[in-house]
């Protein structure tokens, strides 16, 4: 029997990429609304309640509304928005971190934010084994392709091709901070410096680690080995060796659902740069949602993904 999937917000950036990854897959059939119906609460309620799995690719308020429109115990939810990422009763859709079986059994899954995927992917394994402390005030610097801001930011960057770099989150209150602090169990909120570059997709997330100044922090090689051990066997998360001359995002980069992690260390081991490379629309959004959908449907986690 096929799983009935309804993508609420199917005409948006994340929704379209999810539909792309589900195209041609006989395990799923998509419930589609016409352009005239897609924002109609009645039509959405009917589709939400007909679905085995509803994937919400909506702004936060519309995602909350969608959840409130579900009036049965059967429809399971994967929400791509920020609305439920630290909410009680929701499973955080990072299977490598919370466990594949936990996601497979979940009825309410919140898909991780793109930046937190890099930050938590780097830090949580190291905090869990005590190689870095939870009471250090971490910082996180990141750049994203403009598709990370959905249709509105895509339109802005495509209209104004003169923008070379856009720093934002300058009020130090970005919506991902609670998610980063909460799921890492950090004492202090991280200082987060996000920026957008004029490329459609792609993301680099970096956590600088002044090892010599952090009580109990391990050496760079030990940090890398611990990440490797944590992600051993993961088909999507790779811990890379070596020190390339540079890390590049290219405007021509194809969609991909992997997450690449690096630990760069100074010669004397006193400093490290933890770096994550991902596609904001891949493991940072649509790829992660399909990974969870696969697990919830008893399918191989990478089915339909771009490895
Ligand atoms: N883009 C990314 O890289 C990531 C996005 N996300 C999250 O995913 C969610 C979707 O983002 P994204 O796809 O980028 O955003 P988009 O703006 O590209 O798409 C959102 C879609 O939702 C539709 N929509 C808005 N309100 C309603 C409503 N009340 N009922 C039905 N449809 C509605 C919009 O309609 P219309 O087309 O008419 O505007 C649009 O098609 C957001 O919460 C975002 O924060 C998470 C991780 C990464
Ligand atoms: C470039 C850009 O604008 N990025 C978005 C985050 C994208 C993402 O992860 O989405 P969620 O809103 O679902 O968390 C931002 O900073 O708000």
Automatic annotation (TrEMBL):
SMART domains linked to this entry: Semialdhyde_dh
GO terms of biological process kind: L-arginine biosynthetic process
Name of a matching Pfam family: Semialdhyde_dh
Gene3D superfamilies linked: Dihydrodipicolinate Reductase, domain 2 (3.30.360.10), NAD(P)-binding Rossmann-like Domain (3.40.50.720)
Molecular-function annotations in GO: N-acetyl-gamma-glutamyl-phosphate reductase activity; NAD binding
UniProt pathway: Amino-acid biosynthesis; L-arginine biosynthesis; N(2)-acetyl-L-ornithine from L-glutamate: step 3/4
Domain Semialdehyde dehydrogenase NAD-binding: 4-105
Keywords from the UniProt entry: Amino-acid biosynthesis, Arginine biosynthesis, Cytoplasm, NADP, Oxidoreductase
Catalytic activity as recorded in UniProt: N-acetyl-L-glutamate 5-semialdehyde + phosphate + NADP(+) = N-acetyl-L-glutamyl 5-phosphate + NADPH + H(+)
GO cellular component, as recorded: cytoplasm
Catalytic activity, EC: 1.2.1.38
Keyword S-adenosyl-L-methionine recorded: no
Entry superkingdom: Bacteria
Subcellular location: Cytoplasm
InterPro entries cross-referenced by the UniProt entry: AGPR, AGPR_AS, AGPR_dimerisation_dom, AGPR_type-2, NAD(P)-bd_dom_sf, Semialdehyde_DH_NAD-bd
NCBIfam families assigned to the protein according to its UniProt record, in alphabetical order: argC_other
Function of the protein: Catalyzes the NADPH-dependent reduction of N-acetyl-5-glutamyl phosphate to yield N-acetyl-L-glutamate 5-semialdehyde.
Family label: Belongs to the NAGSA dehydrogenase family. Type 2 subfamily.
Name the UniProt record assigns to this protein: N-acetyl-gamma-glutamyl-phosphate reductase
Lineage: Bacteria, Pseudomonadati, Pseudomonadota, Alphaproteobacteria, Sphingomonadales
């Amino acid at each position: 029997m096929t799983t009935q999937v309804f993508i609420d917000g199917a005409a948006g950036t994340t929704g379209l990429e999810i539909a792309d990854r589900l195209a041609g897959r006989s395990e799923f059939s998509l419930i589609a609304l016409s352009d005239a119906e897609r924002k109609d609460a009645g039509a959405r309620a009917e589709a939400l309640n007909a679905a085995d799995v509803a994937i919400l690719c909506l702004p936060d308020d519309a995602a909350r509304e969608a959840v409130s429109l579900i009036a049965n115990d059967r429809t399971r939810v994967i929400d791509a928005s920020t609305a439920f990422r630290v909410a009680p009763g929701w499973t955080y859709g990072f299977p490598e971190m919370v466990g594949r079986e936990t996601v497979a059994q979940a009825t309410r899954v919140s898909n991780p934010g793109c930046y937190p995927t890099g930050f938590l992917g780097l830090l949580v394994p190291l905090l869990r084994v005590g190689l870095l402390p939870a009471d250090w005030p971490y910082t996180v610097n990141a750049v994203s392709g403009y598709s990370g801001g959905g249709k509105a930011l895509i339109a802005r960057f495509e209209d104004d091709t003169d923008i070379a770099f856009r720093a934002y989150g300058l009020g130090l209150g970005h919506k991902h901070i609670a998610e980063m602090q909460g799921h890492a169990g950090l004492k202090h909120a991280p200082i987060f410096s996000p920026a957008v570059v004029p490329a459609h997709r792609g993301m680099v997330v970096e956590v600088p680690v002044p090892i010599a100044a952090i009580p109990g922090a391990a050496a760079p090689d030990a940090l890398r080995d611990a990440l490797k051990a944590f992600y051993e066997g993961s088909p999507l998360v790779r811990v890379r060796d070596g020190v390339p001359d540079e890390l590049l995002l290219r405007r021509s980069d194809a969609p991909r659902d992997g997450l690449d992690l690096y630990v760069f260390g100074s010669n004397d081991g006193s400093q490290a740069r933890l770096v994550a490379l991902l596609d904001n629309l891949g493991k940072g959004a649509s790829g992660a949602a399909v990974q969870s959908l696969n697990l919830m449907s008893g399918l191989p986690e990478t089915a339909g993904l771009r490895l």
